[in-house]
């Protein structure tokens, strides 16, 4: 059966961990993120280790090092997505512009995971006028 | 002299909206970029306002083709957090639906590939075979897509003996058209000339980019979550994971043709050994404690990943959905390089993209 293990790590451990995982042949399944109830960013680096997902969580950081040098597009696309959805910045990430959201929702105007739905609806209505 | 040629986001050669910029010299593509996001519907955000049963209906609409895969993976995540054990018969029915979905999805894409190489008679032949599966899906669930077969804790509808026989008969009837189609792709010059050596993705690049699903398996990467991290009742069935090493469009077609045969094997085993007993734990709103889980399901295009966070309330605190096209679309620029403009549509389509899934 599928298993899930969660660990908390510090920002400084992200790159060494990614290098170790890559050397050991483990796939980066995804980088997920959300904002906790205190308004802090939570970012999970999830690796496939056998039948288990090992989830390494970094809490409360607005800027993180990119691991796109190590995991290529498997990391750069999720990192771009996390910037768009919740405003986490990744140092060393070559941003291509927009990934999912309209151009008008970039640069702090969107970040839909941290913007209440009623505000997003007002914004959409205003743009449609 | 070089030209920049835009394709899409809406273009006759594209299945769904994506924008590609091709940087060309003469007829040859020297570099390319792809841009997505034309179907973004904010489904992850909407899911934070839905309870667990409402979310099943919502996530089923992430994709029209793999509309069983999404609620399957979501339900597994919730069931793991709530430590619910799905009855065996419910697990078998989920797997039967998942594999029927793989059959119709693969036939759909193989048909499109035939259409894109100009082999329209084969396109119609393949889609005619696909219709038999769609009819059975409608027979089981009442719908051709968005089957509504998954509930938290099991399956919504049973497969009775009459339906079981109908599915087995349909699978037997499928053998002849399937073998004919397989023979054409393995031996016909027309199909080979348009697909062999086109849009090659070597194994080392596929591994570096972390691609998944039949797209990766056509490039020699043996990755399939049904074998790597078995879930539901997949460990009870005997099946193989076809892997080819060519990495071109031809291999992507053939790997799907072979996967169809393995899926038929799984469905037959499941139907012949369908356990007695309940199909679910009741259709009540489950009590889900605070927790988190990442569930994975091998959808037709590859691994669907659902990361779900709950806080003890009746709604999801966060669901993060990642679909196969998120891992296959980034490989498109690499595959386009040094191919001709005429093959661009076929190469983009060869990942069997689902941009509705991808954008969510």
Automatic annotation (TrEMBL), chain A:
**What molecular function does GO assign, one term?**
NADH dehydrogenase (ubiquinone) activity
Q: Gene3D superfamilies, per this entry?
A: NADH:ubiquinone oxidoreductase, 30kDa subunit
Pfam families cross-referenced by the UniProt entry: Complex1_30kDa
Q: Where is the NADH:ubiquinone oxidoreductase 30kDa subunit domain?
A: 8-111
| SUPFAM superfamilies with a match to the protein in the record | Nqo5-like (SSF143243)
Name of the featured protein: Respiratory-chain NADH dehydrogenase, subunit
Source organism of the structure:
Caloramator proteoclasticus DSM 10124
Automatic annotation (TrEMBL), chain B:
User: What does the entry list as the binding residues for Fe cation?
Assistant: 66, 357
Indicate the transmembrane segments per the record.
Answer: none
Q: Which residues form a coiled coil?
A: none
InterPro entries (alphabetical): ComplexI_49kDa-like, NADH_Q_OxRdtase_suD, Ni-dep_hyd_lsu, Ni-dep_hyd_lsu_Ni_BS, NiFe-Hase_large
* MF GO annotations: ferredoxin hydrogenase activity; NAD binding; nickel cation binding; oxidoreductase activity, acting on NAD(P)H; quinone binding
> Per the record's keyword annotation, is Magnesium included, yes or no?
yes
Q: Does the keyword Transmembrane helix apply?
A: no
Task: List the protein's name.
Answer: Ni,Fe-hydrogenase III large subunit
Q: Lineage in the entry?
A: Bacteria, Bacillati, Bacillota, Clostridia, Eubacteriales
